Amino acid sequence: MNNSQPGILKPIPVSARYLLFSIEDQSSIREALGRLATLADGHNVVVGLGHSLLSHLETKIDGMRAFPSFVSCGIEIPATHGAIWCWLRGDDRGDLIHKEREITQALSPAFVIDNIVDAFKYKEGLDLSGYEDGTENPEGDDAVACALVSSNQKGMDGSSFVAVQQWVHDLNKFDDMEPIEQDHTIGRRKSDNEELDDAPASAHVKRTAQEDFDPEAFVIRRSMPWANEAGEGLNFVAFGESFDAFEAQLNRMTGRDDQIVDALFRFTRPITGGYFWCPPVVDGKLDLSVLKLA
Ligand code: HEM
């Protein structure tokens, strides 16, 4: 039994709404966080706190840093940050809307909502390209070891670090590819999800093969497709006991290691990027003891 936010280790839900808040009124931050702690159970609402907020509260969390923005081999990785990230999880979109209103009110006037991403499970857990996403996620004890911080410090044990990026797909471009080119982009066969040994070095799963890094770079991915009037894509979400594994994968995807760019960039690109620290839970409430709010 661990004291992580339970939604981190659970399979993705049918529906989700991702909320991003920024600081509006510094004088009421502590009270607002106190209200959030009782509303967010970590199961229906998973919460992450951003670098700017932790710095403002003078809370030093080992391993916490700002999302890296960089350009490599012509690929732009944007960093957009955020003070609080909430992942609302459920079966009913109506419930998620009401939960969002409740959270927004509880966080006001200290925080205002900056961005909302509506997401959903596609079939058995596919990306909108039609490929299964999450196949190589560690499970059981391996999932706990790779996603959760193990610490003697109260308020740290069971916490997690999450990297979040909204990716926008160009599905027309993807549809224009021959089936074999699509399979070589991902490195798996769409029809049966088999990994392709003869896929090129640029194939996504060749770039990110978790056991090929030194040290091995395992993360728990809980990404979900999103869509709105502006387009569609994947809201990429990866939990880790640090950001190191995610960063190693991102470096290799963008060719920073060996100038080989992940073929995914032919049809999709990230438009946001943020890092958040997800506190543990105690008795169904967020444990914010390390923030010393009182
Ligand atoms: C739009 C963006 C992305 C799409 C559509 C996508 C899709 C996929 C798909 C279809 C797979 C194969 C099945 C699986 O094991 O899950 C996969 C694997 C994987 N992806 Fe992504 N991915 C995206 C972005 C990223 C990013 C940004 C990272 C990390 C920086 C990442 C890390 C991984 C990892 C670690 C694996 C498993 C590799 C292995 O060990 O075999 N992905 N992804």
Sum up the structure in keywords:
23% helix; 26% strand; ten-stranded antiparallel beta sheet; 294 residues; binds protoporphyrin IX containing FE; globular; alpha+beta; heme binding; two-stranded antiparallel sheet
Topology:
Elements: E1 15-23, H1 29-39, E2 45-50, H2 51-56, E3 70-72, E4 75-77, E5 84-90, H3 93-107, E6 111-120, H4 140-147, E7 160-169, H5 171-176, H6 179-186, H7 204-208, E8 220-221, E9 224-228, E10 231-240, H8 244-253, E11 268-270, E12 274-278, E13 281-282, E14 285-286
Antiparallel strand pairs: 1-5, 1-6, 2-5, 2-12, 3-4, 7-10, 7-11, 7-12, 8-10, 9-10, 13-14
Helix pairs in contact: 1-3
The site of protoporphyrin IX containing FE (HEM) has 27 residues, from strand 7, helix 7, strand 10 and helix 8.
Look at the helices and sheets and give the structural class: alpha+beta
Mean pLDDT across the residues is: 97
* DSSP strand tally: 14
Order of helices and strands: EHEHEEEHEHEHHHEEEHEEEE
> What ligands does this structure carry?
protoporphyrin IX containing FE
